[in-house]
Amino acid sequence: xxxxxxxxxxxxxxxxxxxxxxxxxxxxxxxxxxxxxxxxxxxxxxxxxxxxxxxxxxxxxxxxxxxxxxxxxxxxxxxxxxxxxxxxxxxxxxxxxxxxxxxxxxxxxxxxxxxxxxxxxxxxxxxxxxxxxxxxxxxxxxxxxxxxxxxxxxxxxxxxxxxxxxxxxxxxxxxxxxxxxxxxxxxxxxxxxxxxxxxxxxxxxxxxxxxxxxxxxxxxxxxxxxxxxxxxxxxxxxxxxxxxxxxxxxxxxxxxxxxxxxxxxxxxxxxxxxxxxxxxxxxxxxxxxxxxxxxxxxxxxxxxxxxxxxxxxxxxxxxxxxxxxxxxxxxxxxxxxxxxxxxxxxxxxxxxxxxxxxxxxxxxxxxxxxxxxxxxxxxxxxxxxxxxxxxxxxxxxxxxxxxxxxxxx
Length: 409
Known about the structure:
single chain, mainly beta, 8-stranded antiparallel beta sheet, 29 strands, globular, disordered N terminus
């Protein structure tokens, strides 16, 4: 007796075979995209954004310069300076500093050869303060902001584009994340700016930190920090430098000499407690000072530590900065009120190649530290009209840095 196979048996056998034959005939792998080697393209447009001037009685200067994609090649042309339809051309030449009109928040845009190496800076004489003009980025951190009567901070959001932009600002206090509805979904109209006074939006006496995320469009963010010791006469204001991202190693350069108030503020955006050690940086060494305990920062909180006496002694011995080594990523800022002047130090940017900065006139120093290997840096100074004033070459290493005096001009 022969056994007959049903339709289900034929389908179970024939369908897989048919599918296999179809795949062989179609060769689907021929149409799948293959990995391609990344290709470098020339930067054809770049913008940097300068904040509004500080309230004060001194002169307000906004300088713009260009070093170009190749520092050895000279370029010249016009960049656009302004905010929106009011932007006007400004002539630039390599290594020369052109003074922009004294405007409010200002966007500087360079095209083609004027896009790479576009730099600008804003400075004010009274109170003495200076800030880099930086391109918009999606995320920034600001540590050691205030929202009280003696210490207050104002956040400035500048939209360089025609369309609206939206920002969400997370506030971390010593007790954790604060819910501040007014800082979520902050809308900034196109070619406009918005200022948020933290002392009015979320008043509080303790130091805090901000995480600013741009969820739509592009925004440039700056923070103006104000200190006013009521009754004692000491007061000041300055721009608070932003930090690009939390890090396990934070190098803060620019310690002021003399007696005064010095507060280190750390913020932990992670889900685990972080322990941080503080080391003093000099041009010849990095060491752990006596009398400074390990700093413990709880998850999603901000912690402030007074270093008044320790750093007053260290700066007399030539200390130029601090190195904060943490068990997890943190943000860090040093707030100093020395000699009646407020200064704020954030994590120093890492340099790997050529870089440039526009500086105000007057006495100044360049501080270098944190090299990951033995090497050298060459520092060339130019006057506003492009004349080379000085060139210094300094040897660097993991445990050594430099404190270079720059020409006043």
